[in-house]
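To: structure desk
From: M.T.
Subject: fold request, one chain
Message: Could you run this one when you get a chance? Sequence is below, nothing fancy, just the single chain.
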Amino acid sequence: MHLTDLFESTVNRAPNQNAIFQGEKSYTYSQINEKANRAASSMQRLGVGKQDRVMVLLKNRIENIIMFWAIQKIGAIYVPINLRMSLEYIQYCINDVEAKMIVFEESSRYLLKQEHFKHKPIIVSLQGMADLSYDELVKNNSLSFHIPRKNAEDLSTILYTSGTSGKPKGVPRSHKNEYTSTMSHIIQNRYVVHDSTLGAVPLYHTMGLRSLLSMSILDGECHTMLDFDPVEALEIISKQNISCLYLMPTMYHDLVHCSRTKNIDFSSVRVLTFAGSPMSKELIEKCNEMFQPQHLVNHYGSTEIYTFTTSTNVRNKPWSAGKPGIHQNVRLVAIDSKGKSDPSKVVKEGEVGEIIVNTNSAEAFKGYWNRPDATNQAINDGWYYTGDMGKRDEEGDLTVVGRVDEMILSNGENIHPQEIETILSNHPLVKESAVIGENDERFGQLVVAFIVPENSNVTVQQLDQYCKESPRLSNYTRPRKYIFISELPLNNSGKIDRQGLVQGCYAEI
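Reply: Done. Structure tokens follow.
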């Protein structure tokens, strides 16, 4: 299905239903549709056509959502950008997609250095000087525009992944990809008609788009946040009776540790889903205790292929990523001595292998934008190589144990950092942990654990004994060195910056 058909069906079915809340303001589906039509008409008159790229440098605000639908209506491609990326990377993205139009807000003006543009885009500003203002787009007297021929295989979005090394990669997503992924999200999370969610994950992230699109299908409400703040988030959840939360573990951590949780009613929350990184057993238990959701789900996937696996049994198996999604074929394959994986060599139960996902899924992209080299590296014989390593238990549930390129080679053994981090993070005196390999003349690499403690009472001896007593940790995988730090360095995606730890980018305590 084309996304414009999806949206227009909802507008016809529930025109006066509130769709978006931003602060104290609310916007119905018909109000959003009218402004999107005016913006679509304006963009077409300015020369933006089918499959042209429109870059959006906006936070999660109503203008961003209106631009999203306007772009879909004229068959152009929505390209939202992570405002936390470096100036150099953003300039690269602008030139890489040859943006026909760029829409920005004042806080992101500094990211636009027009002298570096290879092609001159039309610049639209929410405030201040530009080629024209956003108000001029949406106050256009005309609601009419040419509707291009619709094809579900046409590109709807290009999302840029902010990798830990090298330039960002553009991930083209078709209307079919986005629609199928959203339907999977709805089914896998047990969403229902008229649900409501917190729009806290930015729209440049696949999780943010999924929150918006799932509510659009279900005549639901999306309560947007310009910036995530746990106090504000808790107030919205309580006052607006939010039924579904889809957040990153760091956001849940901030919510459950917020001092404002007392005497707040969270009984409306029916579904709680996390993605982006694993969640510790302790954090899962705190979320379960605080929100008492009917469904608590771990979603494991990527920008390239939205769903790999999901688990609804994280209360009992907090380390589990579950089983393949409804459209997915997932394999764990052996890695040879040269670090290469073979899709025909599936590992046995309990053995570690690289996680690969079949690209025949309707949720799967076809290849990176302008990057045949990266595409050939990631896709082989119809399989997408995730770069993640995992193992399956006797029930067929997947556990992700780390990254291929993060694997520690110590004394001839392959050691996976995430396995150790999962154990350490469950210690009551450990707030967060990260594990890396440190070069060692004798062993090749030593296992080093960085610990963010809950308080000053925790000791190296306690943690070492804790690891020794863990039935899930072999003796040779125990950390041989502990470093206590104030916080873990994070990259632009909010994930642990392991390279930063290697390079000493931390404050020791």
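Reply (cont.): The first strand starts at residue 18 and ends at 22. Let me know if you need anything else for the meeting.
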